[in-house]
């Protein structure tokens, strides 16, 4: 669907906290690193999330839909209605600390991205940076992936890897992974909205070019 777009792709950002990935995306749009994309709405499920205050400061449409104590499917239906009213094309989870209902995932199939601070499928779940550090891995990083019904599981769009340094602790490792996350999310969104990729099974791969595309190099038909 993204390949047919003539207007910019409208992002819906879902967050629960700090919002540094949201801000990195916003900055990439502002500086033109991410073109043909706009933030349609920022939605938090936590009232006091600093990410919401940041959205206010940037003058972006925003909303708080508190999820605590609500049934998952009911809360998600409200989120979906809000996303629809803002004509959102692509949902970006940016530190959204709540599992999504199967109905929501189905409604936005291959249109929900998440960022996770490990090289999936290693270390899904909470505190992934510490999990990786404590396990003693020598390389870790971050993953941007599509969301499916399993936690931290959908097709991988992009990963960035860094070495774990002898000298560091779990905190410094998490900080260095975060730097990579901010780069990765922009690159992943650009890749998804380019319309040049598709999901084949678990793989997010470049679409084959047709013969009449008139390209040079190897032709794939
Ligand atoms: C990031 O580490 C992200 O990978 C994880 O939650 C954290 C959110 O951080 N899913 P921020 O709110 O974007 O600063």
What secondary-structure arrangement, pairings included, does this model have?
Elements: E1 9-15, H1 20-30, E2 37-44, H2 50-57, E3 62-64, H3 72-85, E4 90-93, H4 102-107, E5 112-116, H5 128-135, E6 139-146, E7 156-163, H6 170-193, E8 197-200, E9 203-206
Parallel strand pairs: 1-2, 1-4, 2-3, 4-5
Antiparallel strand pairs: 5-6, 6-7, 8-9
Helix pairs in contact: 1-6, 5-6
What does this protein look like?
The chain has helices at 20-30, 50-57, 72-85, 102-107, 128-135, 170-193, and strands at 9-15, 37-44, 62-64, 90-93, 112-116, 139-146, 156-163, 197-200, 203-206. It contains six helices and nine strands. The strands form two sheets. It has a seven-stranded mixed β-sheet. Strands 8-9 form a two-stranded antiparallel sheet. With 221 residues, the protein is of the alpha/beta class. Helix 5 packs across helix 6. It has a single domain (2-206), classed as Formyl transferase, N-terminal domain (Rossmann fold, 3-Layer(aba) Sandwich), CATH 3.40.50.170. Helices cover 32% and strands 23% of the residues. It binds 5-O-phosphono-beta-D-ribofuranosylamine (GRF). 5-O-phosphono-beta-D-ribofuranosylamine binds next to helix 1, strand 5 and helix 6.
